[in-house]
Task: inverse folding
């Protein structure tokens, strides 16, 4: 996404300026292309970090650096966790569609035999179940719907993590979160507007085969669903990084700021309280 690349570029330039200034030039180069990126030697607990130098930074650098979402990791992790759960839900729907339409639906040489009728609500309402599909229809469903839907979700998920992490302000973070969900849900809006009401009614009474015909009772069923949440939590922690001690800091797999030293929040707290005092 062009927006995320621009946000990442501006944030990296501002953080490089911050590091060079706060460590009085005692820095090491971590990248020279496409522009120079430096990190202070020793981190915020090292001998060169000078917190009092923050007051002499230009105002635009202060604003940009203090809005780095990684400086408040707890809030960023909550946003990324919710966003990851949202995308996992979409991937699970793609998986269920694959099992339902491709694996659990029978084969038939013609679509005239694809539907079975079953009565609901005491026989007053008749619903149709797609019990069989031809090989070309299954191939079209897989190649034109399931694969693109899963691929788009994975792409928007990864780009969305970068975009949310690179957000220039916390109010923009909320706006971008909403925009990302709009992209994922765009297919529903297109279907609602472009498909006729009669087709909507027919689809409401047409069902696919279940993705799992039989599901045994037990803890495993519930633990499996909770496992997705645990997986999302592990991903978010791995992506944003964490600190075990002053000497062991993992900057995460995020590529917004390589080797982010978590030296921003402390100096920004007092400055933001005074700048935005009410």
Result:
């Amino acid at each position: 996404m062009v927006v995320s690349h621009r946000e990442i570029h501006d944030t990296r330039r501002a953080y490089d300026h911050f590091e060079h200034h706060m460590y009085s030039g005692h820095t090491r180069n971590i990248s020279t292309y496409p522009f120079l990126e430096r990190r202070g030697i020793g981190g915020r607990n090292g001998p060169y970090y000078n917190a009092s130098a923050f007051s002499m930074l230009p105002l635009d650098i202060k604003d940009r650096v203090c809005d780095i979402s990684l400086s408040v990791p707890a809030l960023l992790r909550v946003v990324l966790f919710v966003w990851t759960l949202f995308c996992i839900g979409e991937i699970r729907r793609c998986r269920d569609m694959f099992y339902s339409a491709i694996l659990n639906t029978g084969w038939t040489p013609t679509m005239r035999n694809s539907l079975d009728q079953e009565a609901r609500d005491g026989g007053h309402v008749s619903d149709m179940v797609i019990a069989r599909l031809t090989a070309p229809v299954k191939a079209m469903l897989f190649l034109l719907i399931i694969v693109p839907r899963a691929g788009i979700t994975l792409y928007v998920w990864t780009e969305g993590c970068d975009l949310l992490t690179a957000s220039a302000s916390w109010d923009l973070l909320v706006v971008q979160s909403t925009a990302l969900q709009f992209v994922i849900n765009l297919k529903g809006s297109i279907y609602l507007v472009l498909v006729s009401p009669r087709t909507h009614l027919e689809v409401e009474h047409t069902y696919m085969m279940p993705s799992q015909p039989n599901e045994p009772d037990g803890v495993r069923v519930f633990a499996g669903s909770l496992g997705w949440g645990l997986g999302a939590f592990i991903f978010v922690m791995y992506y944003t990084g964490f600190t075990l001690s002053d000497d062991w800091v993992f900057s995460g797999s995020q590529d917004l700021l390589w080797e982010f030293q978590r030296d921003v929040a402390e100096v920004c707290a007092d400055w933001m309280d005074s700048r935005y005092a009410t």
